[in-house]
Amino acid sequence: MTRLTSFEGRPLARPNDDIEDQGLAFDVATILSRRRVLAGLGIGAGSIALAACGANGSSSASTSSSAAAPSASASEKSYTEMVSETAGPYPGDGSNGPDVLEESGIVRQDLTTNIDGSGKVDGVPLTLEMNLIDMTNGNKPMANAAVYVWHCSAQGKYSMYSDGVTDQTWLRGVQVSDSDGLVTFKTIVPGCYTGRWPHIHFEVFTSVDDISDSTKNVLTSQIAVPEDVATAVYQTAGYDGSTDNLKQVTLDTDNVFGDGYDQQIPTVTGSVTGGYTFAIDVPIDTTTAQQVSMAGGAGGPGGPGGAGMPDGMPSGMPMPSGTPPQPPQ
User: Fold this and answer.
1) 184: which residues sit within 8 A by CB, 6+ positions away?
2) Which single residue of 63, 81, 146, 298 has CA 20 to 30 Å from 110?
3) What is 48-284's CATH number?
């Protein structure tokens, strides 16, 4: 069988492997290459689905225009940079053990399965729309940025880390922002485990060339699940234990959100029966160094238990080898 050495004019990093197994950087470059061609034909990003082939050969990455794009007067608005937060001990970006960002297929919109399309997880449907704003460029949309999102399941488990799911990659994925600075993910509302307010993690990289190196992200932060959404969702099947865990923490006592969370609460539409949409602005100043904020809430630095591990970490969650005890993040 003859093996290709190039694809669409680009040399293959792994000429002995199939096109869909060339890795994240190749997938993202393919998206951008096709986007440029379509732009040249006058086809807007909001009217098409831009796709990269996942491991199962299906269209796995797309963008959406359903989130509100920055208004014409966005450059005149005064933005405060989104607060930086810890990535926590379960990022899956190579900074603490496993690295999903090197895997082909991670560029996808639907996070509810493993990157090969298997192992679908259940939960109340959630569409997450993130509007990236480049503060250093007159508050214009941050186009072609790579955004990595991850969070726990309805049962509070993290793929790649929790007992029984270390070989799973669900609820993790990357999208590339369109010309309006928008990325959209299809996922589920995360559960609530003891010691933390329910949340979604994300990292932003300005260049697709940097996505495989977690130290090159320009923003690491978290999005808080609004209380009314969490209260309604946790009364549904599949979120066992989340209602009781939620009663033990508030946004003000949470060890991450306790020092302020106004920027990290999304605008919500939808319902528990039809699914929710979270929309959030993410202003980023690439000229400033990130300062990770840690509040003194329960189980956090300065809070009860100091930096120790609170009881009831995400279900079946072991600490990665060699990692000192720390609060859940």
Assistant:
1) 62, 63, 64, 66, 67, 109, 127, 128, 129, 130, 175
2) 81
3) 2.60.130.10
